[in-house]
């Protein structure tokens, strides 16, 4: 597909403006950041009557899951080749906490790590995992996908997605997956953690305007997904899959959105 030139400032402004909404700055917008508390929130699942096809009917706040037009994940294919500008990741080694919230394994990190998109800074808040991958690449699914969730001072959300394929043992995942917790309160990781080992050397990526992939499926999320996967061992993948046999939302319609791809 012929490369096109994109006004980076206008594109980023358009993609992130929709993120300035009440849900984006409330706890309910994060979907996976907190365990469900019976009686306080509508229960949702990846299966059956509370599965993805029913999310929009479980609670009024979840309506975007059913009627939204910029939902995630997508099958990343036939992207418009464009000059997207910089995507800079600065992840520092720091203490972290790990939690099994009933939907995924999530690693919460203190302030200090950030994602820079153009001239905008987003602080890394947490990372979590899906089995199998939620996004697909030209119709191909991967065993795992990691989502790095970032938040700007204005409350805008940006998510960085990384595919994980089977291969050599991943040193970063070894630290995270050493003792995968059962559902319950957050626990501290034994040693400081740095996420560099979960980022590919090739930083080519896809860019689109999407949503959270869990209820309430809030839209206005700036998505960047790396084309190249990183690797994890079969044992590491199986350890996560044993806890979460399926915690991936099905592919959503692209509708009239632009899917851009770095040159």
Précis, in short:
This protein has 5 helices and 15 strands.
Order of helices and strands: HHHEEEEEEEEEEHEEEEHE
| Tally of individual domains | 1
Task: List the uncertain runs.
Answer: 1-40
Briefly note the CATH topology name: Carbonic Anhydrase II
The share of residues in extended strands comes to: 25-35%
Helix vs. strand class: alpha+beta
Q: What is the total tally of β strands?
A: 15
What kind of sheet is the major sheet? 13 strands, mixed
What's the CATH C level? Alpha Beta
Give the termini distance in whole angstroms: 10 Å
- What number is the mean pLDDT? 87
Percent range of helical residues: 10-25%
Number of helices: 5
CATH superfamily caption: Alpha carbonic anhydrase
What is the radius of gyration computed over CA atoms, rounded to a whole number of angstroms?
17 Å
What is the correct CATH architecture? Roll
Q: What spatial form do the alpha-carbon principal axes imply?
A: globular
Outline the secondary-structure elements.
Blueprint: H1 8-17, H2 55-58, H3 64-67, E1 75-76, E2 80-82, E3 87-90, E4 97-100, E5 105-108, E6 114-117, E7 120-130, E8 136-137, E9 144-151, E10 157-166, H4 171-177, E11 187-188, E12 205-211, E13 219-226, E14 230-232, H5 234-243, E15 260-262
Parallel strand pairs: 1-8, 2-15, 10-13, 10-14
Antiparallel strand pairs: 3-6, 4-5, 4-11, 5-7, 6-7, 7-9, 9-10, 12-13, 12-15
């Amino acid at each position: 597909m012929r490369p096109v030139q994109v006004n980076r400032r206008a594109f980023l402004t358009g993609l992130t403006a929709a993120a300035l909404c009440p849900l984006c700055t409330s706890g309910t917008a994060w979907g996976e950041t907190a365990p469900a508390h019976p009686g306080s929130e509508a229960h949702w699942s990846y299966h059956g009557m509370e599965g993805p096809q029913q999310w929009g009917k479980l609670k009024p706040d979840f309506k975007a899951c059913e009627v939204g037009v910029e939902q995630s994940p997508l099958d990343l294919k036939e992207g418009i080749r464009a000059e997207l500008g910089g995507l800079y990741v600065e992840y520092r080694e720091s203490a972290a906490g790990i939690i099994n919230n009933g939907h995924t394994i999530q690693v919460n990190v203190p302030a200090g790590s950030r994602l820079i998109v153009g001239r905008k800074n987003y602080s890394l808040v947490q990372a979590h995992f899906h089995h199998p991958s939620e996004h697909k690449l030209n119709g191909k699914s991967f065993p795992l996908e990691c989502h790095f969730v970032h938040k700007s001072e204005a409350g805008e959300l940006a998510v960085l997605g990384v595919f994980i394929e089977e291969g050599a043992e991943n040193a970063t995942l070894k630290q995270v997956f050493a003792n995968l917790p059962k559902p319950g309160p957050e626990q501290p990781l034994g040693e400081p953690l740095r996420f560099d080992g979960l980022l590919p050397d090739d930083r080519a990526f896809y860019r689109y305007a999407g949503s959270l992939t869990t209820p309430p499926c809030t839209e206005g999320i700036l998505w960047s997904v790396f084309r190249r996967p990183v690797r994890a061992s079969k044992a590491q993948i199986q350890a996560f899959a044993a806890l979460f046999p399926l915690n991936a939302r099905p592919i959503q319609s692209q509708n009239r959105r632009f899917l851009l791809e770095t040159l």
